[in-house]
Design goal:
Two copies of one chain form a homodimer. Chain A is an alpha+beta fold. Chain A has two domains: 273 residues, 4-Layer Sandwich (L-amino peptidase D-ALA esterase/amidase), CATH 3.60.70; 119 residues, ArgJ beta chain, C-terminal domain (Ubiquitin-like (UB roll), Roll). Chain A has eleven helices and 16 strands. In chain A, helix 2 links the parallel strand 4 and strand 5. Chains A and B meet through helix 8, helix 9, strand 14 and helix 11 of A and helix 8, helix 9, strand 14 and helix 11 of B.
Chain lengths: 405, 405
């Protein structure tokens, strides 16, 4: 039983958060820096961008995650601290140091994350004041929860947050999360973050494998525009304050329950990011079935999802299925055309390599729905993969062409 | 000395063409089917789409090219004859048969090409009448040349054609070409074709290697929207009527001269396709220098060219260089951030992993130019690659979202 509850990352026992406007965003009502703090030290695991060009805070956070111990996260929006060289790295270290000083914890247990424009040095005076004020405002009221969810937003239109509770071996365990992202990544004003807190007692190795597994089928299976950020980060902090029997690979049942709750959280956050995709008017689920391998299925789903022709057809509510089939054809996976079947929202339009004639009448009406499911059956195996994306609209071009650095 | 001359594919000796409106396009003034014919049988070499979903005419043409002998090309626009199963294959064969009958040549020496919407059977009565009329209208006047260039257009705004003459071992040799393409591929109303004719005498093996080499650095180095067609085709016909000494791998000097003229033709046609890219307002050249390998350089150029964030920034004349550097970072090539240098139209904005400060004033004015050259230096080797693309505009979305099948 997974029950959603309010309070996002401060719903689990022992977590507090504080945030303020320090001057990185223009509008003074918008918070742009914040701290997430756990009363007890936490085990931590995280996944970072695989981009070769890595923002400075990611370098700092990687070292923390290597040790597996964290006590706090400090995060700012409005400036990504990326492509900023050695000075950028020192600035990220300073953020950790200042946060540690104020909270009386170790600097190598502070995760740092920054999102916003690339290629500008952080205004450190503003950052210093922001960290100081955020640490003074730590709390676990509902306003704290909503403020931190908003403080990490850039081009996001809505805050993205969730918390769930579940029972593991008789104990109530809570997991909460906040996330941001609107372009899959837009290096000037958007990257993808998800910070997850839990009071579960869990071994470090198990925490690492749980977050990896969960990310593979959620955040790694979404795309808005196919542009990977220098700053992507999914991190989980587990402080053990639920006092459940420690979850390890040996407590199979506990592990399954925890993984299920975590998957629920990450999939929810991933879908929220796609729904808030820049300029998005449609939420699109791409299912590839009957593939030889999951990797084949993922490749095809990814290729379809990144075709601007598929994305504009969906934007135009046009059942132009030839674009979908031809995109599948250049995914680098061997296909047998005569075995293919394609349905959109369960209306089949292409079967055994031939168009279904006459064209089903329901096809035009299903394209008008807000949620479109593309179902491609390869007929060559029994593996599946699902990916979530959105359409490509004129508004996406506006957001990214009319914005000036 | 390469001299451009009028007459496109009928500029070389012995080639004729004829085209008509047979009813595939709505506007009766637009030709939609045509034949390219050589008085003498030709050696032929061609490259086809690597899409797993292959249009029926490509299957037919592949067999012709295997034998290396062709006498004519029959081509229609308005219907791609793709995703049409066995009936589609029979229809493509019928096109070759009918053309061969009218011209008194062998059907297995007729290349067939179709471009247009996917998933609809060809209206064979219209096609039959179109082939019959085209064969009656064969000629080598300038109107024939312009008509065939227009007959293969779909969403193209301008016809694309060229002819050049050069001297090889004392003999005048002529090469001509027509091309189409506006989306790199748009499976409803666009694919990329280039048909090249020459009167050069050349061995089949040499012809094959020449066209392959030439395509690698021209058509394979352009992209409008990254969506690969089911129908792409570049084919060359060489009838030997220039009576030059036969070009082979042993006649190095002749080969170099021919390759140079052919490269000139294919690069010109490739660039024309990009300039006529759907919704394009800018012509963009992406140069990657100092790479470890050409393949690394090509990968990075491709990744930058396919980023909608880079393409929209160029559309908005925004010098948002962080998008270019971060795209390079996820190309799958190892980079050393501290060695990178980025210039736009020779204005350097990022050097040794750091932004150039203050930002060069000329940067904003160079972004307003119609032709943008992105120059990324990796500092890890001495290999280079160049790729050509265009921006992503609201008009691209309109063309592909507002069009209804």
């Amino acid at each position: 039983m997974i029950e959603t509850i309010p309070g996002n990352i401060i719903a689990p026992k022992g977590f507090k958060t504080g945030s303020v406007h320090c001057g990185l965003k223009r509008n003074k009502r918008n918070h742009d820096i914040g701290i997430i703090f756990s009363e007890q030290p936490c085990k931590t695991a995280a996944l970072f961008t695989t981009n070769q060009i890595v923002a400075a805070p990611i370098k700092q956070s990687r070292n923390v995650v290597k040790n597996g111990k964290a006590h706090a996260i400090v995060v700012n929006s409005g400036n990504a601290n990326a492509c900023t060289g050695k000075k950028g790295e020192r600035d990220a270290e300073t953020m950790a140091l200042l946060t540690a000083e104020h909270l009386n914890i170790k600097p190598d247990e502070v995760l740092v994350a920054s999102t916003g424009i690339i290629g500008h040095h952080l205004p450190m005076e503003k950052i210093k004041s922001g960290i100081s004020k955020s640490s003074q405002r730590l709390g676990n009221q509902s306003t704290h929860a909503i403020n931190i969810a908003k403080a990490i937003m850039t081009t996001d239109l809505v805050p993205k947050h969730i918390a769930v509770k579940t029972k593991i071996n008789g104990k109530e365990v809570t997991i909460g999360a906040i996330a941001k992202g609107s372009g899959m990544i837009s290096p000037d004003m958007a990257t993808m973050f998800c910070f997850i807190t839990t009071d579960a007692a869990i071994s470090l190795n198990t925490l690492r494998s749980c977050i990896k597994r969960s990310t593979e089928n959620s955040f790694n299976q979404i795309t808005v525009d196919g542009h990977m950020s220098t700053s992507d980060m999914v991190a989980i902090l587990a402080n053990g304050m639920a006092h459940n029997r420690t979850i390890t690979s040996s407590t199979k049942n506990d592990l399954t329950l925890f993984q299920k709750a975590l998957d629920y959280i990450t999939l929810n956050m991933a879908k929220e990011i796609v729904k808030d995709g820049e300029g998005a008017t449609k939420f699109v689920q791409i299912e590839i079935h009957e593939a030889k391998s999951i990797s084949d299925a993922k490749k095809i789903a990814r290729t379809i999802s990144e075709s601007p022709l598929v994305k504009t057809a969906i934007n135009g509510e046009d059942p132009n299925w030839g674009r979908i089939v031809s995109a599948a054809g250049y995914a680098g996976v061997t296909l047998d055309e005569s075995k293919l079947k394609l349905s959109i929202n369960n209306v089949t339009i292409y079967r055994k390599g031939l168009p279904v004639t006459p064209t089903p009448k329901r096809l035009c009406s299903v394209m008008k729905k807000d949620e479109i499911t593309i179902q491609l059956y390869l007929g060559t195996g029994d593996k599946s993969a699902t990916l979530w994306t959105c359409d490509l609209s004129k508004k996406y071009v506006s957001i990214n062409a009319d914005y000036h650095t």
